[in-house]
């Protein structure tokens, strides 16, 4: 799955680069491949699941690619086509718009760096916490549909079993104290964070109410995803910043944009508690919830 996501992004990026170098429009490329401009757009955006080698060769001819460039495109197409079916397709009817794209990136990432001003990161949420969020978002949703979403949520968390996957998490104190689902749910959720925080691959830190001023108040919640090398080519896809919004999500990939969020995280980390002190804070708040 990760190979499919990353190979698709790399293939699309290179095809767009070679097309622009050849001074051809996207519509011209679509005509060469005998497909629609919408399909060509999905291919260049890394969103197409499969691609024909006939397409690749036709486009490589039109773009006047070198033998090495053509072979690179073919290798990426082969890696993309041979990847396993994405697990979340079984839950397509239960997913919010755009979630499948984020899950593809999350599943492909080697490192997830995130700052949260509200709600626990999805990968770290307990089922009861996730269930409470579902009821807040969709109070009229049938219980069976809610449970299907919880099932998807549990499946998603298998990502944490990957020994090569690293998380660096900073949350505001509000995230730890906000009573999503009530005191009992929050006590269980905080214990879950404590248990995860002792793993070498997962760092959890908190910014307390009395922390000095920092950029986190201005930038809002975001996630920075970084990716491993592609097996077939050794290429490394550029990192992506995901900014989640109530009315829609934003993906930032330009080097300058990513740098700004990376720097913002470093500034937030400067005022955050260390992991051990954060762990003690979470245990203390959990005790308050149980009282």
Q: What would you say this structure looks like, in words?
A:
Pfam families: DUF5753, HTH_31. InterPro entries: Cro/C1-type_HTH (IPR001387), DUF5753 (IPR043917), Lambda_DNA-bd_dom_sf (IPR010982). GO terms for molecular function: DNA binding. With 291 residues, the protein is of the alpha/beta class. The chain has two domains: 81 residues, Orthogonal Bundle (434 Repressor (Amino-terminal Domain)); 204 residues, Endonuclease, Chain A (2-Layer Sandwich). The protein is 53% helix and 11% strand. It is built from 13 helices and six strands. A six-stranded mixed β-sheet has the order 3-2-1-4-5-6, with helices on both faces. A hairpin with a 6-residue loop joins β5 and β6. The longest helix has 20 residues. The mean pLDDT is 90.
The overall pLDDT, averaged over residues, is 90
Shape: elongated
Low-pLDDT residue spans: none
Strand composition percent = 5-15%
CATH-defined fold name of the largest domain: Endonuclease, Chain A
The overall number of domains is 2
Q: Strand order across the biggest sheet?
A: 3-2-1-4-5-6
Helix-strand sequence = HHHHHHEHHEHHEHEEEHH
Number of E-state strands: 6
Can you tell me the CATH class of the largest domain?
Alpha Beta
List the helices and strands and how they pair.
Layout: H1 2-21, H2 26-32, H3 37-44, H4 53-62, H5 67-82, H6 99-108, E1 111-116, H7 127-137, H8 143-156, E2 166-172, H9 173-177, H10 183-197, E3 202-207, H11 216-219, E4 222-226, E5 240-243, E6 250-252, H12 255-271, H13 275-290
Helix pairs in contact: 1-5, 1-6, 2-3, 4-5, 7-8, 10-13
């Amino acid at each position: 799955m990760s190979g499919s996501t990353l190979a698709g992004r790399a293939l699309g990026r290179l095809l767009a680069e070679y097309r622009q170098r050849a001074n051809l429009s996207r519509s011209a490329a679509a005509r060469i491949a005998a497909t629609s401009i919408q399909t060509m757009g999905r291919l260049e955006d890394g969103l197409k699941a499969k691609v024909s080698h006939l397409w690749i060769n036709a486009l490589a001819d039109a773009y006047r690619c070198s033998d090495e460039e053509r072979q690179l495109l073919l290798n990426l197409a082969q890696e993309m086509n041979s990847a396993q079916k994405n697990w979340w397709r079984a839950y397509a009817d239960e997913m919010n718009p755009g979630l499948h794209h984020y899950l593809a990136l999350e599943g492909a990432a080697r490192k997830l760096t995130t700052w949260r001003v509200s709600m626990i990161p999805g990968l770290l949420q307990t089922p009861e916490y996730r269930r409470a969020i579902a009821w807040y978002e969709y109070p009229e949703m049938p219980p069976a549909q809610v449970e299907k979403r919880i099932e998807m949520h549990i499946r998603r968390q298998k990502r944490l079993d990957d020994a090569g996957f690293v998380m660096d998490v900073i949350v505001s104190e509000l995230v730890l104290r906000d009573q999503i689902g009530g005191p009992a749910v929050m006590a269980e959720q905080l214990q879950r964070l404590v248990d995860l925080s002792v793993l070498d691959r997962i760092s959890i830190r908190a910014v307390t109410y009395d922390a000095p001023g920092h950029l986190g108040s201005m930038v809002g919640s975001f996630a920075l995803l970084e990716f491993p090398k592609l097996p077939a080519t050794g290429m490394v896809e550029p990192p992506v910043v995901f900014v989640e919004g109530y009315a829609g999500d934003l993906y930032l990939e330009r080097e300058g944009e990513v740098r700004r969020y990376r720097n913002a995280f470093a500034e937030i980390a400067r005022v955050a508690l260390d992991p051990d002190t954060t762990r003690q804070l979470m245990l203390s708040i959990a005790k308050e919830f149980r009282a």
